[in-house]
Amino acid sequence: MDERQHKATKKKLKIFGFILLILGAACMVTGFVDFGLSMNSDSDMPSLFFLIFIGSPMLFIGISLVVFGYKKEITTYVKNESVPVINEAAEELKPAVKSVVGAVKEELQGGETHMVTCPRCGAKNPVGHKFCPECGGSLEKICPECGAKQEADDKFCGNCGAKFE
Ligand SMILES: [Zn+2]
Ligand SMILES: [Zn+2]
User: Fold this and answer.
1) How far is residue 110's CA from residue 34's CA, in Å, rounded to a whole number?
2) Residue 162: its pLDDT value, please?
3) Contact 20/59 with Cβ under 8 angstroms?
4) In this structure, which ligand is nearest to the CA of 160?
5) Ligand 2: centre distance to CA 23 (Å)
6) Residue 162 Cα, ligand 2 centroid: separation in angstroms?
7) Range in 7-16, 25-34, 35-44 the model is least confident about
8) What's the pLDDT band for 111 if we cut at 50, 70, 90?
9) Which of 14, 28, 128, 146 would bridge 55 by S-S if both were Cys, CB 3.0 to 4.6 A apart?
10) CA 153 – ligand 1 centroid, Å
11) What three-state secondary structure class fits 131?
């Protein structure tokens, strides 16, 4: 019974809110139109300008009442509808975001660190090439300290830290 009364009150609030909203909007529009007309003709003062001052609080109260009246619907909607939608969207977006982040990371790290400079001709080569396609020179060298394979332009051995001459 309480719930029903509550609903009835809310319904009244909604209707009252809508009426206020429409009246307020009408007052404001009338006021603005009158203001605009008197500005253009620049003869007499805007006589209906006060309607804006009446209309704006009416509009504000109307909106508040309507929002209050629909509050339950809005909260249940937000709880039940939009959360799974957001989760689903996030799930679907995850791989896309991941790949974008990966691409950006690679871009930021730059080609420079992934390239091997040929010690003979200076051409840049992607990591993994054994020989320079420009001059045929070797792009690998063997660390004299530990025997690990290193890129030809490395200054230190990545395995044991020995300095290359
Ligand atoms: Zn080369
Ligand atoms: Zn080494």
Assistant:
1) 63
2) 94
3) yes
4) 2
5) 85
6) 5
7) 35-44
8) very low
9) 28
10) 11
11) strand
